[in-house]
Amino acid sequence: MADFVDPIKTERLVLRPFTAADEADLLEFESLPEVARYLFNEPFDEEDNARALAKRRKQTSLAREGDTLVHAVEYDGKVIGWVQLVWVSVTHRQGEFGYVFHPGYGGKGFATEAAVEMLRIGFERLGLHRIYGRCDVRNEASARVMERIGMRREAHFVEAEIFKGEWGGELHYAMLDREWRASKWAS
Fold first, then answer.
1. Which residue of 22, 144, 162, 186 shows the fewest CB atoms closer than 10 Å?
2. 72-104 pLDDT tens trace
């Protein structure tokens, strides 16, 4: 079992478990249509936000297959996004990671900086063999983050499902532990 309650400090960010005090910061960006555009949910109202925050506050450990770790991403005292790592398979040592950020903080490398730390947890602390990430084909910013951190594009699913009333496609990226160890990000 691995608990992740201690903050992770990067050059500019603090990744840490969510607290009740994060509610307003979270709602500020989770309520935006442009944030929900590529997610399975619609923009959050106050009730949705409170429910999501309550769930995320409990997601601080990776003890068994299926567990999800979620960390708030704080910049200069404000939560500007969140990152997650899901332990998909113990047998196959696989994980999935993802991230959501306030668009007002886009283009500054914050998502890259935080995403690297989720990969570090997966490869260096959990000993995963493979971590993958997925995004809507129209979400160019998310695809660029995964490419920037050295993930391989493995698949482009064309019109794979009905997503918010229209055919949607999905990009899949992945990285293996040996690719992580060879990257500039590895410890």
1. 162
2. 999 999 999 999 999 999 999 999 999 999 999
- Give the pLDDT confidence of 38-77 residue by residue, as tens digits: 998 999 999 999 999 999 999 999 999 999 999 999 999 9
- Chain centroid to CA 131: how far? 12
Sign of the dihedral defined by the CA atoms of residues 77, 183, 90, 95, in that order: positive
What gap in Å lies between CA 91 and CA 72, rounded to an integer?
A: 29
Structural contact between residues 97 and 115, judged by C-beta atoms closer than 8 angstroms: yes
Q: Summarize pLDDT for 5-19 with one digit per residue, the tens.
A: 999 999 999 999 999
Q: Which residue has the tokens 């979620």?
A: 70
Reported pTM: 0.95
